[in-house]
Amino acid sequence: MADLTSLTLTQLRDGFRAGDFSAREIATSFNAAVAASKALNAYTVETPEDALACADKADAARQSGDLKPLSGLPLGIKDLFATEGVDTTSGSNILKGFKPPYESTVSAKLRADGAGMLGKLNMDEFAMGSSNETSAYGPVISPWKRNDGGNAALTPGGSSGGSAAAVAAGLAPGVTGTDTGGSIRQPAAFTGITGIKPTYGRCSRWGIVSFASSLDQAGPMSRTVRDCAILLESMSGFDPKDATSLDAPVPAWEQGLSSDLKGKRIGIPKEYRIDGVPDEINALWDQGIAWLKDAGATIVEISLPHTKYALPTYYIIAPAEASSNLARYDGVRYGLREAPEGGNLDAMYAATRAAGFGAEVKRRIMIGTYVLSAGFYDAYFTKAQRVRALIKRDFAEAFEKCDLILTPTAPSAAFGLKEKTSDPLAMYLNDVFAVPASLAGLPAMSVPGGLDSQGLPLGLHLIGREMDEQGVLNAGLAIEERAGFSARPEKWW
Amino acid sequence: MSVDTATVRHVAKLARLAMSDAEVEALVPELNNILGWVDQLGEVDTSGVEPLATVIDQKLRLRDDVIDADPLTGGNVRDKVLANAPDAQHGFFAVPKVIE
């Protein structure tokens, strides 16, 4: 029997249904892979019993002909999703030991569809970071190495770094991620896997630890476009418990997959040709254009004139919302409490938050509090919301000329740990291609396109119209078929 | 616009973050660097542009006004609500003395 951890989610589903192997064999294989992967630091909590229990249910369901869409498939869950009775810490010391008495809607939907859980996945603290280095558990180490023999430890990207590393290293056939400004797409690109952020509101945010509520959106990460379509279908859907949840039917995305792009117009935004981006990334972009042409699409140049302002807009809006959302961590209801001897309630709040939050989270709370404070609210926050309206309008105008937009996912391949931590701005720039679609609430996905000269994966990024996940997935499939990306990291862990 | 140590201390107080002098000193250039960078938004003409509050157009709806609408979180789950409290006493969250 082939090593089950090397199969795609689709292959596992279909093989299990055909009786080629049991769900218990799948769960056992992945549990063993997870247990042997400590060097990657991808999982913060392992739940092998859960994966086995769900597998046994799936095996019984196969006997009785009562299979659900995800029966037999164990998944990794980002530590941002509340999981009933299982530690949910958002990568932060302030939530160490927090065991939610409830389950997030997204993970509950995956469970209701038969999926088991392998464990909780490491991430940047409160999803604030692009390299996973802000995690209170320490950074995830990418399974990839440069081919220069230097053996440097690389980042899997962030904030869904544990999720990305788990899929790339065969520690889960599929995982959940969340994306606020690129946190699914950039790590997917860095690790040679596929990840999609759906339209804002497709996936319920209920039970997902909040970072920036107007931007946060859950999505799947997996090996292939089809895998992502399968998982996204399970994760999506209206939830009355989330006031921003979209009350719209969930299309049958997997069934609708087609890589025939005849009649589709692909927009290439001229403003995304940015100085300082390596030639290899621009070359891959050109290759992506050629692939989509080959699939029948026509290419049109488009303009997104406010692209340059997307990152500064994001770094006002996201910290502002974060400073408000993170006000709930006060040492009263859950998580850490630091109460200085003889101190009052205010002293407890301040001490708890000082002890519980890491440096990047504090930095963003400070920026957010500043831009929301009296006297600066209009100059920063309202201004950013106005620019956000213009960025959204740019996309609306572009989509009159094209059906989808193709760009690179990130301005570099995976970088080494500690290479960028001393310069917050340099780190923020890593999401330069991902953030505009987030600000506009649009569906977007990263698909692996090839390897750079150092042997590291590079991703291509597709942005679609509001609610057009199908278009994004189909163009992703067209790239996937043509790129034939099959590179895998060599096992060293 | 730029911040100094007094502003950083004030913002830290608003944010309920205890901060040492060294931390305040370190944050001044970091915040100024970031604020200087976001100041480029000043170049954008936003006159007549409404600030965007909801990214996907949809009507705000209200939930049904029903207690226990959700068995996990709707109500009557005091012990679950208190389960993660650092200090719970007599069915309440306990905090340092507020009234002398």
TrEMBL record, chain A:
Pfam families assigned: Amidase
Gene3D superfamilies found in the cross-reference section: Amidase signature (AS) domain (3.90.1300.10)
Catalytic residues as annotated in Swiss-Prot or TrEMBL: 78, 159, 183
Family in the record: Belongs to the amidase family. GatA subfamily.
Subunit structure: Heterotrimer of A, B and C subunits.
EC class (word): ligase
Superkingdom per UniProt: Bacteria
NCBIfam families recorded: gatA
Protein name in the entry: Glutamyl-tRNA(Gln) amidotransferase subunit A
Main function: Allows the formation of correctly charged Gln-tRNA(Gln) through the transamidation of misacylated Glu-tRNA(Gln) in organisms which lack glutaminyl-tRNA synthetase. The reaction takes place in the presence of glutamine and ATP through an activated gamma-phospho-Glu-tRNA(Gln).
Source species: Sphingomonas rosea
UniProt key word Cell wall biogenesis/degradation: no
Classification via InterPro entries: Amidase, Amidase_dom, AS_sf, GatA
Annotated catalysed reactions: L-glutamyl-tRNA(Gln) + L-glutamine + ATP + H2O = L-glutaminyl-tRNA(Gln) + L-glutamate + ADP + phosphate + H(+)
EC numbers on record: 6.3.5.7
Higher taxonomy: Bacteria, Pseudomonadati, Pseudomonadota, Alphaproteobacteria, Sphingomonadales
Alphabetized UniProt keyword annotations: ATP-binding, Ligase, Nucleotide-binding, Protein biosynthesis
KW Protein biosynthesis (keyword) present: yes
Gene that this sequence comes from: gatA
Domain named Amidase: residues: 28-473
From TrEMBL, chain B:
Keywords from the named record: ATP-binding, Ligase, Nucleotide-binding, Protein biosynthesis
One Pfam family recorded for the sequence: GatC
EC number: 6.3.5.-
InterPro entries noted in UniProt: Asp/Glu-ADT_sf_sub_c, GatC
Domain of life: Bacteria
Catalytic class of the enzyme: ligase
Record has Transmembrane as a keyword: no
PANTHER family: GLUTAMYL-TRNA(GLN) AMIDOTRANSFERASE SUBUNIT C, MITOCHONDRIAL
Quaternary assembly: Heterotrimer of A, B and C subunits.
Function (record text): Allows the formation of correctly charged Asn-tRNA(Asn) or Gln-tRNA(Gln) through the transamidation of misacylated Asp-tRNA(Asn) or Glu-tRNA(Gln) in organisms which lack either or both of asparaginyl-tRNA or glutaminyl-tRNA synthetases. The reaction takes place in the presence of glutamine and ATP through an activated phospho-Asp-tRNA(Asn) or phospho-Glu-tRNA(Gln).
Family: Belongs to the GatC family.
Protein name in the entry: Aspartyl/glutamyl-tRNA(Asn/Gln) amidotransferase subunit C
The organism's taxonomic lineage, starting at the top: Bacteria, Pseudomonadati, Pseudomonadota, Alphaproteobacteria, Sphingomonadales
Gene encoding the protein: gatC
